[in-house]
Design a protein that fits this description.
CATH class of one domain: Mainly Alpha
Bound molecules: adenosine-5'-diphosphate, magnesium ion
Structural class: alpha/beta
Radius of gyration: 20 Å
Strand content: 5-15%
Number of helices: 13
CATH superfamily of one domain: Magnesium chelatase subunit I, C-Terminal domain
CATH topology of one domain: Helicase, Ruva Protein, domain 3
Largest sheet: 5 strands, parallel
Helix content: 40-55%
Length: 345
């Protein structure tokens, strides 16, 4: 399915029009052109991803929200459930290049960021960019990568650049890192510390498909075959315009207050040693805006906040006595959502 076209989103020359506010009639205004393009791209992406990854609407939605909000994505799941095909489908659907890095204990920081090599002909040092310079980077088994390499990658993600020998090299924009972790078996792994997990805007799991979907898979529906046949739903330029337009989606003060209340409640929840940060609160609003765009709306509802809260917050929480996987955090976020009063708009 290719509903959003790269062509449509080039009509952004005039810059974003004023944000649609609820008019005097109380009804929201129609979306301005860049936002309408972002909505079309979002639907195109969802269709593309759902044709490849079968039976996991949540993971598909989270991946689209990551793309539109410009957030990095962490996928925590066991091998063989479609993590790699999801990341590949996302890159293809965005019309963007993908580089894949397999995490292992010998992976050096320069294997990710790049190296300076001495060029004999010019007798000077030249920088050879590493895989992190691809628009979409798939880093498999991030927790099998030693801490030095993890921090080199996460620093590059945070700064939007790589510094080698005193020179900074900017990463492409937009830039999306999809990292995967296997939550089973902690032997020989280097769990990410909290400050590093906080750099991921969203985390998701995929889970096992149900029997009906698994039967379709073994008969070559979806998966690799669908990926090979996938057409781009956009281009990097359309993607960047969509990220900008998504940030113009209206957030009413009551909705912002609700999101902040949810984030703050994670800090005082029983058994939570470290709650969600203000960075998480910002991400929560950005992702709720992206969910509104996917739902073809120009304003965020409390439902949007609830819809992205687990994906946005769970992986950042440190829960007493729990393994460093998102599971305990997900339960806490569900409890916090159930206990926080929802504003009526
Ligand atoms: N829900 C799913 N939808 C589509 N394909 C799936 C799904 N689950 C597993 N697969 C298929 O299983 C194989 C392994 O998937 P892959 O993405 O490499 O797994 P992972 O990266 O999680 O180890 C691929 O052929 C993929 O198409
Ligand atoms: Mg894989």
């Amino acid at each position: 399915m290719t509903i959003g076209s790269g062509r449509a989103a080039t009509a952004t020359g005039a810059g974003p029009a004023p944000v649609a506010e609820a008019g005097t009639t109380g009804r929201p205004l129609p979306p301005h052109a860049p936002l309408a393009n972002a909505m079309a791209l979002a639907v195109g992406l969802r269709g593309a991803l759902a044709s490849v990854l079968l039976g996991s609407d949540d993971a598909v939605t989270t991946a689209v929200v990551a793309a539109l909000s410009g957030s990095h994505l962490l996928i925590e799941d066991v091998p063989g459930v479609g993590k790699t095909v999801l990341a590949r489908a996302l890159a293809t659907a965005l019309g963007a290049g993908l580089a894949r890095v397999q995490g292992h204990p010998d992976l050096l920081p320069s294997d990710v960021t790049g190296v300076s090599v001495f060029a004999q002909d010019t007798r000077s040092w030249e920088f050879r960019p590493g895989p992190v310079f691809a628009p979409v980077v798939l880093l498999d088994e991030l927790n099998r990568t030693p801490p030095r390499t993890q921090s080199a990658l996460l620093e590059a993600m945070e700064e939007g650049q790589v510094s080698v020998d005193g020179t900074s090299w900017p990463l492409p924009r937009p830039h999306l890192v999809v990292a995967t972790q296997n939550p089973v078996g902690q032997l020989g792994t280097y769990p990410l510390v909290e400050s590093q997990l906080d750099r991921f805007g969203l985390s998701t799991t995929i889970g096992y498909p149900d029997a009906e979907v698994e039967q379709r898979l073994v008969l070559h529906d979806g998966g690799r075959d669908a990926l090979a046949a996938l057409d781009p739903a956009g281009s990097p330029a359309a993607w960047e315009a969509a990220i900008d337009a998504t940030s113009t989606v209206t957030v009413a003060p009551a909705v912002a207050a609700y999101a902040v209340a949810v984030v703050r409640a994670t800090r005082t929840a029983p058994s939570v040693r470290l709650g969600a940060s203000p960075r998480a609160a910002i991400a929560l609003i950005r992702c709720a805006q992206a969910r509104a765009v996917l739902d073809q709306r120009t304003y965020v509802t409390p439902d949007d906040v609830q819809g992205v809260a687990v994906a946005c917050l769970a992986h950042r929480l440190v829960v007493d006595g729990a393994a460093p996987t998102g599971r305990a955090g997900r339960a806490v976020v569900d409890e916090v959502l159930a206990a926080t009063p929802v504003p009526v708009l």
